[in-house]
Design brief:
Order of helices and strands: EEEHEHEHEHEEEEHEH
Number of strands: 11
CATH architecture: 3-Layer(aba) Sandwich
Strand order of the largest sheet: 9-8-7-10-6-1-4-5-11
Number of helices: 6
Mean pLDDT: 88
Helix content: 25-40%
Radius of gyration: 23 Å
Low-confidence stretches: none
CATH class: Alpha Beta
Number of domains: 1
Largest sheet: 9 strands, mixed
Length: 266
Amino acid sequence: MKIAICIKQVPGTTAVEVDPVTGTLKRDGVESKLNPCDLYALETALRLKESCGASLTAVTMGPPQAQSILREAFMMGVDEAVLVSDRKFGGSDVLSTSYTLAQALECAGPFDLIICGRQTTDGDTAQVGSELAELLHIPHAANVIKIRSLEEKQLQATVLLPGCRMQISMQLPALIAVDESIAEPRLPSYKLKLATADRKIKLLSLKDFTDTDESHYGQSGSPTRVVRVFPPEHNTRQERWEGSGQENALRLAAFLEEGKFLQNPR
């Protein structure tokens, strides 16, 4: 059985500039890390490898420096890694990203199961998994909190829904997006770091895809546009009041009424 895990490199800091023209994050020179939600996808896949002997392939889309998170995946126990990288993919929105990953997975596969994290910390859309599955024409489920069984042609899992849990069964190939409650991620292994130091990472670019039409990728293939991006306003004004408790209580009440935080009871 072959399992693919979609992971992403995200900024490791909130101090990231936004391109005023494209509305995309300026990632060059910014400290980066493996998307935290993807650690749970990796752990889920690793446990399936231990229980049923599956072969694991980590797949990421990004610039050349994204190889670092693939090396981290090797250190956790992943067997193979694929970097999907091309300047023509720059500026992709959710749909364009999903289409690019779908092309890459078809090229690198076939896979029996694709596992994604719930969402990424830089986009927070939680849409790539479901869009990717639709483009690949395979069944999918989000918010998976437990894998009950994985057989050659069928997956049984538990899905967390508002107010309840649902037991589902899906035919393979399929895609799941896992919730953070599914398992506790393991730490990278120093022994595996040494053992996989020379392991090759497969590189895929536009020329390797079945669809090589540039207009389907990057900003050209993105139907959504960021109209305006701005940082939240911060109010750092401070006041120090001296006086008795009663005096300060009346002063606070007046302040809240003046700022329209409270309705005037009088």
